[in-house]
Amino acid sequence: MPITLAISLHAPDDALRSRLMPVNNKYPLIEVMGAADRYAVISGRRVTYEYTLIDGVNDSVEQAKQLGNLLKGRLANVNLIPVNAVPERGLLRPTKEKVNSFEKTLLHMGINATVRREMGADIQAACGQLRQRTLEKNKPARR
Length: 143
Prior knowledge:
The protein is an alpha/beta fold and 143 residues long. The protein has helices at 14-20, 29-43, 61-71, 96-108, 129-137; strands at 6-8, 47-53, 76-82, 112-115. Strands 1-2-3-4 form a four-stranded parallel sheet. Helix 3 (61-71) packs parallel to helix 4 (96-108).
């Protein structure tokens, strides 16, 4: 079946990935990458790795190099997703320059990478933003 496997990665190492995604404690990178490799061998298809870029958390050039090393030699495509800013949650969007540097680092290492086109952030209706606004609107008033 022509199905593309997409894996939420968001970090190039277990320590950070566990902080961002507690499920990593149960399914660490070595297991996730092993499963992805098996899928790629059996299907002959690339695996898409989703990587949300969060300012100051997982968006450095060094982390891009770590990610490149993790994916080197694998049938892989990285979908870079600059986070939609939700300041109340401490999630800030990296600058365009940082996003471009991250992407260029991966491309230079031979890793296919693209930056996802954003939609809705200009009206605070992008993924994460609308949910936060709804939660705030439905929060009981303090007395």
